């Protein structure tokens, strides 16, 4: 048996099963938060009587399901959303896919109303920004999850910013459906083409390592120096023959860092690839899921497409981002307009470079950044209901003032 080809086929079939044939598109949302001390702004550790685990235990009985690693509580979930922890105890809410932004807003507000009184009793609050508001990465300990220990060790040699990415950053991620391989590739390319504008409109990182951040798109700069093999733009995305097989081949060549065993325990495999580890063994569904999760591209493919470029930010701006994505990616004519630009990896990176240096004074594909962003927002707005159009107001205001969230916080 040719194990490589069969395992490749298993990955491809996974993507094929992700095709939604009912044409009813949904949005999923993940928002990461820092839990900080109200008086100092410093992040709260997972550990101790007043740590993040203690907070989770206070609300555990309100959730039908919980996730433990050993004796440590690391997650809670119900039918609407799950709560989990990123490496330095950033609290993430992952809202199950919904067709209406209004439903996502209701779910998020329920979460906030539930956790806010608990945090206030501790003297804590939630902060949504792209990087720690006060604490530095070296001050923060990892939660008791072995995979994060493995990743922490690996990223020490793959780039210089792994410690900052794991301990310091927070994001807002949106997932969208695809109907076919062709639809998936078109949406993936469109997400990357829109990526520079999305990064500018969601830039919310005024502080890096306790000091005012220099330039713009700080979180993008961090991710660029974490691990080029698994971050940024998917290799070959703009090639004519790119498809599910291309993405599966990329995954099979990816260093996996760690692999869960049959008991769910993580073993450090460093830079061994899936092709090497399972060269004489067929992938299980659990192993397929693990391989999919070990790439940190700006746009990641699973049973859906995950847009990962945005900073964590206030929820009003998250809603604007949801509206932007819905207005463009749910409508073929809007997608076609985005894809009509003769843009590839080189042009995308050049646009990011311009925005990192000059913000709204920079350029996106030869257009002034503000003009390109205005075009994208107007295009989205034309496909939305009036109640959804209103959600775009924070982005429209930023574009008119040429001032994003990072500049707002700086001022």
Tally of DSSP helical segments: 17
Radius of gyration: 21 Å
For the biggest sheet, the summary is: 9 strands, antiparallel
Q: Structural class per helix/strand content?
A: alpha+beta
Q: What is the average per-residue confidence, as pLDDT, rounded to a whole number?
A: 96
Strand content: 15-25%
Q: Unreliable runs, pLDDT <50, ≥5 residues?
A: none
Total beta strands: 17
How far apart lie the N and C ends? 63 Å
The general outline is globular
Please give the share of residues in helix: 40-55%
3D architecture notes:
By secondary structure, the protein is of the alpha+beta class. The protein is 45% helix and 20% strand. The strands form five sheets. Strands 1, 2, 3, 4, 5, 6, 7, 14 and 15 form a nine-stranded antiparallel sheet that branches. The longest helix is centred in the N-terminal third of the chain and has 22 residues, at 101-122. The chain is globular. The N and C termini lie far apart (63 Å). The model has no long low-confidence stretch (mean pLDDT 96).
Topology:
Elements (H helix, E strand, L loop, with lengths): L2 H15 L9 E11 L14 H8 L5 E5 L2 E6 L3 E5 L5 E8 L2 H22 L1 E4 L18 H13 L3 H7 L2 E6 L4 H21 L5 E2 L2 E2 L5 H7 L6 E2 L11 H9 L2 E6 L5 E8 H4 L7 H9 L2 E2 L1 E3 L3 E7 L3 H15 L2 H8 L5 H14 L4 E2 L2 E2 H13 L4 H4 L3 H9 L3 H6 L1
Parallel strand pairs: 10-13
Antiparallel strand pairs: 1-5, 1-6, 1-7, 2-3, 3-4, 4-5, 7-15, 8-9, 11-12, 14-15, 16-17
Helix pairs in contact: 1-8, 6-13, 6-14, 11-14, 14-16
């Amino acid at each position: 048996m040719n194990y490589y080809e069969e395992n490749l086929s298993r990955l491809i079939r996974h993507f094929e099963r992700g095709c939604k044939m009912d044409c009813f598109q949904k949005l999923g949302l993940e928002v990461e938060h820092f839990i900080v001390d109200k008086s100092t702004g410093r992040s709260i550790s997972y550990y101790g009587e007043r740590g993040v685990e203690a907070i989770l235990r206070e609300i555990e009985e309100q959730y039908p399901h919980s996730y433990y690693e050993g004796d440590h509580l690391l997650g809670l979930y119900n039918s609407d959303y799950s709560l989990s922890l990123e490496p330095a105890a950033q609290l993430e809410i992952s809202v199950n896919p919904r067709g209406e932004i209004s439903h996502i807003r209701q779910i998020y507000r329920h979460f906030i109303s539930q956790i806010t009184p608990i945090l206030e009793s501790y003297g804590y609050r939630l902060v949504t920004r792209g990087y720690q508001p006060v604490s530095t990465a070296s001050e923060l300990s990892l939660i008791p999850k072995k995979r994060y220990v493995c990743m922490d060790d690996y990223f020490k040699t793959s780039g210089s910013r792994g410690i900052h990415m794991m301990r310091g950053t927070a994001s807002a991620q949106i997932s969208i459906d695809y109907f076919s391989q062709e639809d998936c590739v078109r949406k993936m390319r469109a997400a990357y083409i829109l990526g520079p504008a999305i990064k500018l409109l969601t830039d919310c990182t005024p502080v890096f390592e306790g000091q005012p951040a220099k330039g713009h798109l700080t979180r993008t700069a961090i991710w660029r120096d974490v691990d080029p093999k698994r971050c940024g733009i998917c290799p070959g995305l703009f090639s004519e023959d790119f498809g599910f097989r291309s993405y599966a081949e990329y995954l099979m060549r990816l260093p996996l860092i760690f692999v869960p065993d049959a008991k769910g325990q993580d073993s450090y495999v460093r830079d061994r690839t899936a092709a090497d580890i399972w060269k004489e063994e067929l992938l299980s569904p659990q192993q397929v899921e693990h391989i999919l999760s070990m790439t940190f591209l700006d746009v990641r493919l699973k049973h859906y497409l995950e847009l990962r470029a945005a900073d964590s930010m206030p929820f009003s701006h998250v809603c604007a981002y949801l509206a932007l994505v819905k207005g463009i990616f749910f409508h073929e004519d809007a997608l076609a307009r985005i894809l009509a630009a003769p843009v590839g990896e080189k042009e995308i990176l050049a646009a990011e470079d311009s925005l990192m240096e000059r913000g709204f004074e920079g350029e996106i594909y030869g257009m002034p950044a503000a003009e390109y962003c205005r075009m994208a927002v107007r295009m989205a707005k034309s496909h939305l209901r009036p109640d959804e159009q209103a959600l775009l107001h924070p982005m429209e205001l930023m574009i008119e003032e040429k001032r994003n969230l990072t500049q707002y916080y700086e001022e």
